């Protein structure tokens, strides 16, 4: 009985942490988001704290405030760029003359659905065309667009609450990084404190490189795609580049979704301007530009990011992402690599004598030498 009581006492912090995650998921998500932002901003605050101008030196409070101000500046810039583009896209959808589009493409549409009817994939050509027209009218219906906008606006308040809570936590994490150590040391038994400190140090270094590298990859992808589309004179290049780059964060299926979204944005711009002759050029150019950007990313950007963060074999990365997708869908795929990195660090420090763990983590040492 005493052994069981001592065991419960030793893991009481962990049990409390799990209870918070289960019963207060919002608070847990704010904590995780603040940790990610801490990993992103910590290198900046470390540099600022080393700067000395005469007798003045940036202390932890000033460095943390500057990092938070920089976060807000970046957020404001993103909002100032994204909101006008979103409004422009809504107006483009609103301005599409659906009847004019169907009149212009009447002959190829008739041939296409006539072929489908001939092989019994649709009941009749006219019924299929009528169904398509109704669906397109529903998509571009201004009332439907307003419903989407309204739902976005309705969630704004909760987004701001989450943002404020996250920024608040980030500031104090940056001001006193020992808080994070104290939180994690509180949830592990005393005999594991030394190893836990090693895990925290390694995790902070590797995940900081991963998060920063991922942001650089997104910026590079957005730049490549945007300039490629500008060169080929494809409409809406900046919005396409930004969305494709953001969706690229989702492994494997992200580029495919981004390509579909990018083509949709381009097609909407073409149809809104009634420049129907440019439709084929738009549909072909966007996937080609995205493909070239993906090749550059796969052979240049990703090897640098993954070699310095996950330090895992490509087969490992592929299997881990598949498992992440099976367990958590798209979110699981996004967090699969950083989660796997943390698990390997924990395994290396706590179970390094197990042969299987040793094989998985051996190249972490090899690449650090």
Could you say which overall geometry the principal axes of the C-alpha atoms support?
Answer: elongated
Average per-residue pLDDT, rounded, comes to: 76
Q: What distance separates the N and C termini? A: 48 Å
* Class computed from helices, strands and strand pairing: mainly alpha
> Could you describe the largest sheet, including whether it forms a barrel?
2 strands, antiparallel
How large is the count of helical segments?
16
Rg over CA atoms, rounded to whole Å, is 26 Å
Q: How many E strands?
A: 2
Portion in helices:
over 70%
Report the uncertain regions. Answer: none
Oligomer: single chain
**Proportion of strand residues:** under 5%
Give the neighbour order of strands across the main sheet.
Answer: 1-2
What is the H/E order? HHHEEHHHHHHHHHHHHH
Quick recap:
The chain is an all-alpha fold. The protein has helices spanning 2-10, 12-23, 25-50, 60-94, 98-104, 106-118, 125-140, 142-154, 156-175, 178-186, 193-231, 237-247, 253-272, 279-308, 314-350, 355-368; strands at residues 52-53, 56-57. A hairpin with a 2-residue loop joins strand 1 (52-53) and strand 2.
Account of the 3D structure:
This protein has 369 residues and is an all-alpha fold. Helices cover 84% and strands 1% of the residues. The chain contains 16 helices and two strands.
């Amino acid at each position: 009985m005493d052994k069981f009581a001592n065991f419960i006492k030793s893991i009481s912090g962990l049990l409390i942490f799990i209870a918070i995650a289960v019963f207060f998921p919002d608070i847990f998500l704010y904590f995780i988001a603040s940790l990610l932002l801490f990993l992103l901003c910590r290198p900046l605050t470390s540099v600022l704290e080393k700067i000395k101008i005469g007798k003045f030196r940036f202390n932890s409070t000033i460095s943390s405030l500057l990092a938070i101000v920089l976060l807000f500046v970046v957020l404001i810039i993103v909002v100032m760029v994204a909101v006008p583009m979103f409004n422009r896209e809504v107006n483009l959808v609103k301005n599409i003359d659906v009847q004019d589009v169907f009149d212009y493409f009447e002959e190829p549409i008739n041939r296409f659905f006539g072929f489908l009817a001939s092989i019994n994939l649709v009941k009749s050509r006219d019924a299929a065309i009528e169904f398509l027209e109704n669906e397109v009218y529903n998509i571009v219906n201004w009332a439907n667009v307003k419903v989407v906008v309204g739902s976005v606006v309705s969630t704004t308040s909760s987004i701001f609450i989450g943002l404020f809570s996250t920024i608040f936590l980030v500031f104090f994490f940056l001001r006193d990084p020992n808080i994070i150590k104290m939180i994690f040391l509180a949830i592990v038994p005393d005999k594991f404190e030394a190893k836990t400190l090693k895990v925290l140090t390694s995790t902070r270094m590797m995940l900081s490189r991963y998060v920063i590298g991922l942001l650089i990859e997104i910026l590079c992808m957005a730049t490549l795609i945007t300039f490629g589309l500008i060169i080929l004179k494809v409409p809406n290049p900046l919005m396409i580049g930004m969305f494709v780059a953001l969706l690229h964060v989702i492994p494997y299926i992200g580029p495919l979704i981004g390509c579909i979204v990018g083509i949709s944005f381009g097609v909407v711009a073409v149809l809104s301007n009634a420049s129907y002759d440019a439709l084929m050029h738009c549909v072909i150019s966007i996937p080609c530009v995205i493909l070239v950007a993906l090749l550059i990313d796969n052979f240049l950007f990703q090897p640098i990011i993954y070699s310095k963060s996950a330090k895992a074999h490509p087969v490992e990365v592929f299997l881990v992402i598949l498992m992440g997708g099976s367990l958590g869908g798209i979110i699981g795929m996004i967090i699969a690599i950083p989660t796997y990195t943390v698990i390997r660090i924990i395994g290396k420090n706590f179970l390094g004598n197990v042969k299987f763990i040793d094989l998985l983590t051996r190249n972490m040492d090899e690449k650090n030498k």
